[in-house]
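To illustrate the input format used throughout this study, we show a single complete record. The first block contains the structure-token representation of the backbone; no residue identities are included at this stage. The design step must infer an amino acid for every position from geometry alone.
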């Protein structure tokens, strides 16, 4: 109730401050708004922003502080309301003919933009720090050498657990590699066709149909892998070749995941290829190159940094996928080269270790955070590698 009342009064003060600020500024100009340093809107926004930002800022700080010192929520809202009222009257009293309201508004907007951009950074830092703290607790109970170099994954909440990450990393990279082997060629060739060869009518139909794949829930892809793709691969490939009898396999999850990633590669690559200046195409064609030679020697090299970014996005998406792996590849943590054998990934085991009635002080549960930070470092390494490739080829073709 008190929160609703506070926000209602704050909204009323913000709206009222805007109109009252404009009115006082007009009155101080004696009816000639040209005598004012700033436009009427700036005077109104100065009062409105000062009131709203002060109230919300004090409320946020008070809520954060109350979690440490135990302040009653009523006091927090009361202090925020008093601060907003003080900001209202101070900003209202400052209105005059020579007051630089535009500068004040721009300063407040700049501060708001800085806070908004800092939220993403602080959120990332908070996620990493929370994972590092829990990972530190895990390594205080379990040897890091056995975790990073162990080849057996066998958690047992009664003790004697073997928590080697290598089978999980192998399954993650194996499935992701198959998915990228499917998604990158198909997606890139589709992007080249849509941007360079397809007519406008074909493009207007084909591109939205490809992008529909990105909107299908991953659980639907998982069911497709479980019911259709898995049995088909088992009956027509695995069993005749003597490679396995299970419908859950690395190939099943990789193929379906690759289909899911096609629009990520295709749409982004299409936009990037279309961004290549038309003058480069015209120059190549004018020198006698064919359209195919122009694509191979001019357009693709020029768009390569963006294409690498699209592939990186697809790789990160593949590494972090869970539902398709659960339903398509199974949950067996094994080291094998057989693509028709069931395997699992890091993300699947993170979910399984944190599911159910578990003791969050045990290494069998804390290992999920070690798996998470390892996955974070892996994707960070992919980003660094992609940045290196982008810079190398950008220098070459600019």
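Output of the design step:
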């Amino acid at each position: 109730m008190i929160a609703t009342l506070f926000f209602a009064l704050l909204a009323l003060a913000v709206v009222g401050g805007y109109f009252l600020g404009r009115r006082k500024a007009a009155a101080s100009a004696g009816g000639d708004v040209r005598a004012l340093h700033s436009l009427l809107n700036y005077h109104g926004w100065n009062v409105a922003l000062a009131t709203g930002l002060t109230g919300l800022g004090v409320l946020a700080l008070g809520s954060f502080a109350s979690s440490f010192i135990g302040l009653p929520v009523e006091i927090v809202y009361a202090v925020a309301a008093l601060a907003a009222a003080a900001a209202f009257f101070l900003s209202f009293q400052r209105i005059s003919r020579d007051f630089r309201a535009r500068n004040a508004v721009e300063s407040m907007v700049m501060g708001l933009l800085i806070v908004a951009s800092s939220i993403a950074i602080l959120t990332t830092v908070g996620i990493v720090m929370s994972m590092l703290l829990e990972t530190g607790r895990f390594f205080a109970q379990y040897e890091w050498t056995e975790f990073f170099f162990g080849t057996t994954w066998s958690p047992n909440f009664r003790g004697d657990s073997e928590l080697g990450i290598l089978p999980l990393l192998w399954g993650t990279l194996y499935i992701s590699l198959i998915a990228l082997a499917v998604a990158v060629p198909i997606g890139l060739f589709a992007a080249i066709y849509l941007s360079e060869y397809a007519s406008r009518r074909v493009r207007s139909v084909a591109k939205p149909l490809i992008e529909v794949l990105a909107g299908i829930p991953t659980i639907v892809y998982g069911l497709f892998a479980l019911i259709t793709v898995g049995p088909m691969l088992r009956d027509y490939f695995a069993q005749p070749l003597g490679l396995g009898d299970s419908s859950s396999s690395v190939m099943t999850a990789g193929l379906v995941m690759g289909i899911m990633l096609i629009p990520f590669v295709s749409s982004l690559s299409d936009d990037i290829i279309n961004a290549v200046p038309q003058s480069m195409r015209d120059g190549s064609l004018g020198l006698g190159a064919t359209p195919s030679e122009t694509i191979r020697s001019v357009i693709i090299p020029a768009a390569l940094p963006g294409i690498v970014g699209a592939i990186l996005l697809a790789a990160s998406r593949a590494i972090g996928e869970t539902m398709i792996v659960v339903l398509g590849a199974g949950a067996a943590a094994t080291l094998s080269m057989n693509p028709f054998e069931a395997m699992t990934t890091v993300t699947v085991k993170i979910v399984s270790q944190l599911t159910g009635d578990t003791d969050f002080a045990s290494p069998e549960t804390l290992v999920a955070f070690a798996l998470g930070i390892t996955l974070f470092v892996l994707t960070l390494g992919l980003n660094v590698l992609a940045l290196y490739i982008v810079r190398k080829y950008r220098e070459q073709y600019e």
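Structural context for interpreting the output: The mean pLDDT is 87. The chain has two domains: 2-133, 153-397.
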